[in-house]
């Protein structure tokens, strides 16, 4: 069964890849009926961009990242642009189908070839312009200064002495082939300008090995906060090898919470900060798995609990174990609109503050990005969470 799946998945992926690009070529080039030389040029351009994307996906895991950074940017930018093309073309085709149905019911004659060609040219022009402008604006957003989101969260069990505690949350930095040390240094400077009491990083820190990215991640070790800097694993840490990264982060002074908790504050006034392994670790054989029960085991029920988990999916376990606040990421807020609506197929919440039972959940949109260096309708985020008491 597993062998059959391992064979079927690449075949499915290749089929989708070819079909995706054929559809874009057919609608943006073929249907427009350009001169033959432009038709060939359009085909060559789409093949080149598609190849750049495959290169970034396949070779990027093994090749030296810095030397190939332009290829990564080109390939992943095409992924974002082609996604926008695809969505807009689907909408246009649905509209055309509706118009065709109306014409049939009204018993109108078929469109003339000239009219069909003009319609195709208009659609191609609008889609191409919208897609390219969207990518350009989204690129500036992705590489720009993350938006500082200020959120006040009321926690009934919080000690009066801990009211006003400010937690800065980073998530999904995805340090790797594109986001490097220079970008990390800017993020660290932005965090330090806030003067946080506590800094937490809710997973998906890296896209690469310790050997490749040690220097890029190092500035995070210079962050200062009254109660320290904490981290929990995301699914990308497990893809890249969680154990080496856990060791490296602890070496540079970042405490990793692995189904465990610490107390923030002094004595009876302290609240509990707990952290769990990524939700995907539930499906892994051996090693540590996502376990909220273990993370909060032994905590006094009268003490407030803030839980760090990479995925919003942890909300049900958090609510079942009396967690006051869950901080998560993973979704990127959808990253490229309207992808956020597809994210709901996998996660219960995509961004912002929510309440489930007696537990509040905040989902960070992500400080970096994954894949396309593009953010449309979901700007990068650094969250400042102020704890208050109702």
Characterization of the model:
The chain is an alpha/beta fold and 390 residues long. It has 2 domains: 2-142, no CATH class; 147-388, Purple Acid Phosphatase, chain A, domain 2 (4-Layer Sandwich). Helices cover 44% and strands 15% of the residues. It has helices at 2-28, 36-59, 69-105, 113-143, 181-194, 210-217, 235-240, 242-251, 292-296, 315-320, 340-343; strands spanning 147-154, 166-170, 198-202, 229-232, 255-256, 260-264, 271-275, 305-308, 325-328, 352-356, 359-363, 381-388. The strands form 2 sheets. It has a 6-stranded mixed β-sheet, covered by helices on one side. It has a 6-stranded mixed β-sheet with strand order 6-7-8-9-11-10. Helix 2 crosses helix 3 (69-105) and helix 3 packs antiparallel against helix 4.
Percent helix range: 40-55%
Radius of gyration: 24 Å
Mean pLDDT: 90
Largest sheet: 6 strands, mixed
Number of strands: 12
Low-pLDDT sequence parts? none
| CATH homologous superfamily title of the largest domain | Metallo-dependent phosphatases
Q: How many helix segments? A: 11
- What overall geometry do the principal axes of the alpha carbons give? elongated
Determine the strand fraction and express it as a percent band: 15-25%
**What structural category do the secondary elements indicate?**
alpha/beta
């Amino acid at each position: 069964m597993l062998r059959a799946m391992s064979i079927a998945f690449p075949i499915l992926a290749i089929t989708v890849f070819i079909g995706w690009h054929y559809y874009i070529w057919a609608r943006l080039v073929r249907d427009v009926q350009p001169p033959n030389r432009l038709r060939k040029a359009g085909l060559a351009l789409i093949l080149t961009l598609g190849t750049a994307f495959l290169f970034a996906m396949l070779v990027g895991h093994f090749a030296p990242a810095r030397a190939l950074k332009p290829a990564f940017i080109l390939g992943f930018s095409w992924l974002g642009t082609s996604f926008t093309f695809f969505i807009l073309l689907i909408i246009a085709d649905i509209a055309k189908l509706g118009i065709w149905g109306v014409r049939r019911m009204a018993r109108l004659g078929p469109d003339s070839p000239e009219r069909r060609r003009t319609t195709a040219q208009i659609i191609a022009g609008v889609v191409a312009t919208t897609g390219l402008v969207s990518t350009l604006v989204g690129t500036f957003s992705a590489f720009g200064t993350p938006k500082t989101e200020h959120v006040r969260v009321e926690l009934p069990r919080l000690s009066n002495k801990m009211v006003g505690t400010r937690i800065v949350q980073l998530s999904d930095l995805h340090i790797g082939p594109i986001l490097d040390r220079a970008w990390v240094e800017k993020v660290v400077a932005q965090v330090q300008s806030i003067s946080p009491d506590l800094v937490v990083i809710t997973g998906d820190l890296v896209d690469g090995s310790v050997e490749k990215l040690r220097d890029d991640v190092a500035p995070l070790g210079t962050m200062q906060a009254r109660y320290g800097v904490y981290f929990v694993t995301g699914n990308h840490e497990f893809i890249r090898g969680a154990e080496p990264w856990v060791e490296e982060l602890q070496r540079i002074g970042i405490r990793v919470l692995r189904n465990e908790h610490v107390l923030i504050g002094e004595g009876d006034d302290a609240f509990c900060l707990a952290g769990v392994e990524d939700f995907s670790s539930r499906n892994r054989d051996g090693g540590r798995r996502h376990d909220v029960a273990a993370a909060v085991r032994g905590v006094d029920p009268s003490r407030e609990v803030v839980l760090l988990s990479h995925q919003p999916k942890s909300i049900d376990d958090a609510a079942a174990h009396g967690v006051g606040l869950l901080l998560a990421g993973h979704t990127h807020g959808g990253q490229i609109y309207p992808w956020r609506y597809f994210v709901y197929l996998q996660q219960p919440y995509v961004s912002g503050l929510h309440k489930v039972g007696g537990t509040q959940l905040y989902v960070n949109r992500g400080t970096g990005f994954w894949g396309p260096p593009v953010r449309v309708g979901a700007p990068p985020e650094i969250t400042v969470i102020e704890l208050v008491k109702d």
